[in-house]
């Protein structure tokens, strides 16, 4: 059962550094459902749903990102879960 959901906008050098693929891998590892996509303003947008403990771990990972990313900030908003059953790259 889904407990929590977060909408995250990730700023910095986050496109062209495998951020979406790495986010997909981390979400799979933590049983997080939702999606990730690049936005035209060079940010990455994530909708993530999962139990609160794993969602906290996922958010902390997003604040750092994969090896070649340089995250400058994350805008985080707690939202209502949409009961998504997979994690996908849009």
Explain this structure to me?
The chain is an alpha+beta fold. The chain has one domain: Alpha-Beta Plaits. It contains 2 helices and 5 strands. Strands 4-1-3-2-5 form a 5-stranded mixed sheet. The chain is globular.
Number of DSSP strands?
5
| Gyration radius, in Å | 12 Å
Question: What name does the CATH topology carry?
Answer: Alpha-Beta Plaits
Query: What's the total helix number?
Result: 2
Instruction: Briefly note the structural class of the backbone.
Output: alpha+beta
Order of helices and strands: EHEEHEE
Question: How would you sum up this structure in a few lines?
Answer:
This protein has helices spanning 19-29, 52-62, and strands at 4-13, 33-38, 44-50, 70-78, 87-89. It has 90 residues and is of the alpha+beta class.
